[in-house]
Amino acid sequence: MQKLSLLFTKDGLQWHISKGKSVLQEASFFVTEETSPNLVEEKLDEILQKNDYQEISVISALNHFSLTPDTFAEHELGYKLISYNAPVNEEKEELMLSVNKKFGVQFYYTFPKKFYQKIKSKKLPTKFNFSGEKFLNSIQVRNSKEIHINLYHHQVEFFAFDNRKVALYNNLDADSEVDFLYFIMFSLSKINFSTTETYFYIYGETSENETFISELKKFVKNLKLVSENSSKKNFVLSY
After folding, report:
1. What is the pLDDT of residues 51-91, one digit of tens each?
2. Which of 33, 29, 24, 68 is nearest to 45 (CA)?
3. 187 CB neighbour count, 10 Å cutoff
4. What's the predicted TM-score (pTM) here?
């Protein structure tokens, strides 16, 4: 059985078609000054026209989200919670929920309704998830203070763990790797994580973000590259 996996990022769409553990086809598209501003929607339409898959997996890394304990059940407040982090348009955004029992947290997130409706119209078994939950589900925490960083094209998300519990999650869109560094270091200062005692783990588009990694190494003592995206091996899409 073949599966279509879709990853939505800020102004980007990545997809691959897989069978079992083998990736048969893959592609990435990002909006630039030279492309159509509707590139993501156009490329989504193209891939949905194909009929050589039987199920769909959708991962949203769009930074319209809110993190709560998994015991929080006032789902009608989902849009309001997300609005504290980003502007929300209820008419154009579908409210979604991803639960991570492993760490006892859940993510309310929104996904563009026009994309949601196009995907659902295929009438295939479909699973939607938030990148933060999928990332979190792959993490093994061994030290008292850890930072796990997942790098994208012009985007970064990270988790901070204190005594094996989630202390912070955040997600940033930016064109500058310097902004990534400032974002991480500023966040650490707010939760009183020392760069000398904290272990850093990095995943994803490491080659594309070499400046960020080299600059981070100047400030931190313990840093490890865990998983690097390569041909037919995208960290979030594959694991």
Report:
1. 889 999 999 999 999 999 999 999 999 999 999 999 999 99
2. 29
3. 18
4. 0.95
